[in-house]
Amino acid sequence: MKNTYPKHEKLKSKTAIDLLFTEGKSVSKYPLRLVYAPITPETGEKIKIGVSVSKKYFKKAVDRNYYKRVLRETYRLNKSILIDHLDQPYAIMFFYQTKDRLTFQEIHKKTIALFEKFITTIQEK
Hints:
One of its GO terms (molecular function) is ribonuclease P activity. By secondary structure, the protein is of the alpha+beta class. Helices cover 42% and strands 21% of the residues.
């Protein structure tokens, strides 16, 4: 599988985002949080993902954009963990929720742990 983050995997639908915040469930691994909800398959994608960094913690857009790039990159490198274990399509929002400035390596390790926790959570259902 290619380690890419193509356009069709990006979460852009307002209805899907609203669904996440109204009916979505959450999994956390400090400082990351993943909110997810099952969606109806549209064109065969298994996953739609978006990233967010709070303005509350990072006032400057430069800093928020840096952490959003890091989150997208860690997803791109580890998306096989998710896609190999999903049985139905999910909309996922990926949050960075602290003012601590972690390095890429620390965020990468936390992302792997968060994805594994998410997989065990959905398999328990």
